[in-house]
Amino acid sequence: MAERSTAAVDVADNSGDEPLTAKADKATADGSAETQETAEQSAPDTDRERQSGGPGIATPDLHSGHKLARRYRLEECVTRLDGFSSWRAVDEKLRRAVGVHLLPADHPRARSVLAAARSSALLGDPRFVQVLDAVEENDLVYVVHEWLPDATELTALLAVGPMEAHDAYQLVSQVSQAMAAAHREGLAHLRLTPGAVLRTSSGQYRIRGLAVNAALRGIRAERPQRTDTEAIGALLYAALTQRWPYEADAYGLSGLPKGVGLIAPDQVRAGVHRGLSELAMRALVNDGATASRQEPPCTTPDELAAAVAEMPRIRPPEPTFTAPPEYQRTTYQQGTYGRTQQGLGPPTAPVAVPPPPLQSRTGKALKWTVAALLIAALGLGSWQVADRLLDQRKESETTPTQTTTGDDDKAIKPVKALKIAEASEFMPGGYGIKPGLAPNTIDGEAKTSWITDQYWNFPNFGNLPKYKEGSGIIVDLGSVQRVSVINIDMYRSGQKAEVLAAGKDASNPTSLSDFSQRLTKLETVGGTLKSTLDKPVRTRYVLVHITEVPTDGSSSRFRGGITEIQLKG
Questions:
Q1: Do 275 and 182 have their domain in common?
Q2: pLDDT tens for each residue of 55-112
Q3: Alpha-helical segments (H) within 191-297
Q4: Residues in Cβ contact with 94 at an 8 Å cutoff, skipping those fewer than 6 apart
Q5: Does 161 lie in the same domain as 27?
Q6: Do 554 and 430 lie in a common domain?
Q7: Number of domains the chain is built from
């Protein structure tokens, strides 16, 4: 269980007490609730040690304004624990905010922290908060990492309330895929809490502290993949219910009632998505608890990511519009101006009396002049209207009318932009690249894009087996529509791409074989991919399929992407 494999160990590590560490290790191994409670009850006795860094460990005496490597100026201490401290700092060379972990070079965990930071930096996956520097200098070890001022901790998001199904789906999908990629490189997190997950303003989830947070606290696990998978299940459970899936309160969330065990999220709160509820239980399988449909547990992030990919896609909620205030008509518009109504008394203003007509000879001349001008204006207007109608008739006679054959033998109406309900990443092998950026392709903003990772040596996504069928974006029109015009802005010219459409009866297509209708041929395209179809296609799902990406400014690095997708029909 996530809480039993991390929180109990945290207590042991914070205190620096060997007997308590042994108890926490036992809690991790056997999942015993009594053992966990014993470790937690011992925690209050170590508060003073925790503040001072623990027995025998001296916390570095640093202050705001201290500068590391003549570059990183410490601004604010955000954590001081167990002999190390974490700071918000400023990189004066690049003029940006950064985060810094600091501990003495003779700290028993200094070597492991340096090794973890350097391994994490080599991963280079943008789904993780990047390690920028890891240095031992002047009896200090410090790790510098990204600081994301526009991102919000999952802890803060859950404090507001449970997530909508679509947001929870994005959370478990992105986090499980990121952790699966990390474990394939031999890296584990082991402390994947709500405080370690951030959501950026674009809706992308970023994970901080990969390997480093566990090394700072001395956390280890016999089954690291199982530990991280349970932690993701706990995050999903909390997102669906706003409750922590264990009896103890944690991270600002209330725990489950004592003595009832682990119950499914859809039994904790009404309206929880059934598929996501079952997915959380599959990741949190323990003490005999299983998913309601008795599906096998997910024991690795890879298995969890695959289970998420097999689920029907969850759409974002429809936007709600606030009705404008009722239009208040004036007294004149209500037809009561100058009238006395029953029970209302006399009107507040006197009735306007029109002036008498002009009776003089000058008045008569003026009247005839005005009449003549009106007649001339009407004649001129009629001539202009007739001329415009004639032009429109000629234009309609010279413009051919499109007709269709097949199911609907009717003339097509003038093309119009089709509303796209959702955009998602094409993941034929279950491995995503940056699924959180997929909505950028339909947001109408030229500044935002879905951008791939950077690949080395090969334009076909680094020649990686998991991307042998390429990648791209699937757009969902919400219902079957008639598509006749394609207009796509590519992130970079030189990409090899094609546009395919699923059959009109398709539901949640995920593989290339599901997209049976070819709209454009596979070829290297420029900055835009445009096409007007000879015959409109009826479909709900359209795939912009990319098989090769262009160079990233050098001969060995490749990257591509899509900026905006527009369809008309």
A1: yes
A2: 445 556 788 899 999 999 999 999 888 889 999 999 999 999 999 999 999 999 999 9
A3: 212-217, 224-241, 265-268, 274-283
A4: none
A5: no
A6: yes
A7: 4
